[in-house]
Amino acid sequence: MSIFSGIIDFFKGLFSKVRPGLENFLHKEKDFAIAELKSLWESKGKIALNEFKDEAFEYLSKAISDKLGHAVPDNWINILLGFAYEAIKAEIVAAMEHATK
What is the pTM of this model? Predict the structure, then answer.
C-alpha cells in the first residue's frame, strides 16, 4: 500500500459520513493527480511545491476539470494537490532509502 493510499484510507473514515462526494473524488482521482503533478514538478526542475503552488493548482484544476468535463470545487483540488505532492515526496524518500541499502 502506498503512503497516498494510506492517507486516503485515513480520511475515508473521516469523510465517508460527512463528505462522501469528496471521499469518492479523492479515491478516483488520486493516481491521475499524482501523475499530472509529477509531470509538472519534473518540468519545473523538481523544485519545492511552495515555489510553484499557484501554477500547480491552476494546472491540476484544469486537468481534472478537462478529464471530468466539469469544474471541481477549489478546496477539493487543493486537498488533492497536497496529497499528490506528499505522495511524490514519499516516493522520493523510499527511492533514496532503497538506494542506500
Answer: 0.76
